[in-house]
Amino acid sequence: MIQITNLSFSYNSREDRLIFTINHNNYHERLDFFVTRKMIIDLLHGFDNILITLCDNGKLFKQLYKEQEPLKPEASKEEKAETKWEKPISDGELNLTKAKAPILLDALSYTTHDNNIMTFRFISNGEPYAISTMNCELFQKTLSSLMRVIPFVAWGISRHILD
Q: pLDDT tens, 124-136?
């Protein structure tokens, strides 16, 4: 199981899924998880419970989320076509920079410890692949980053799901 040292989030419009990238700067310990809309909704409901019960009702999260700007959507295909310096990348070139194929995230379990410390396990096909331990402050900052990339309108999710 891989220890998570950094976690980033992105949206893949072609797959219509979020991607959780774990340890993006370490080729040997990098993992990419595809996360479906249903899984995100389930996770957000669970995260809401964590905010309420462990993290002072999400006070820091609400402040961070209110202050941040959502990420801009990707440029349309017409705009991309006008950029003359871009060239298509072949499958062979992509394979050189690709770590491993993304894994579908089936579950994210957590356990709590003293002082509101939480341990999260990222699970696919019943097997834990990665683990992260964080306090409430880091959890709320991470959740705020995740919320920036969710395509709320396209997925029919209220932007205020955690209010």
A: 999 999 999 999 9
Residues 6+ apart with CB under 8 A from 7: 20, 21, 22, 132, 142
Q: Is 116 exposed, middle or buried (0-12, 13-18, 19+ CB in 10 A)?
A: middle
Residue 70 has pLDDT above 70, yes or no: no
Say how many domains are in the chain.
Answer: 1
The token duo for 116 is 């509101």
In a domain, 118, yes or no: yes
Of 19-33, 83-97, 99-113, the one with minimum mean pLDDT is 83-97
Closest CA to 20 of 93, 89, 127, 107: 107
Helix locations, the chain, DSSP H: 37-54, 59-67, 77-82, 91-97, 136-149, 152-155
User: Does residue 59 fall inside a structural domain?
Assistant: yes
Provide the residue range defining the domain that includes 26.
2-73+99-155
